[in-house]
Amino acid sequence: MDRHEVEGHEVIEGEVKPTGNGAHVLVPKRWRGADVKIVRTSTPDE
Hints:
Elements: E1 17-19, E2 22-24
Antiparallel strand pairs: 1-2
């Protein structure tokens, strides 16, 4: 696994859920309009 260092304000943990031809992760409404970074921390289940 690679190690990445990211400066930020808050961290949440969630599960990626399928949506149409892609997937999404839900974040709090108060994050609307903010820049975010998503880091995959496990191998996806096929």
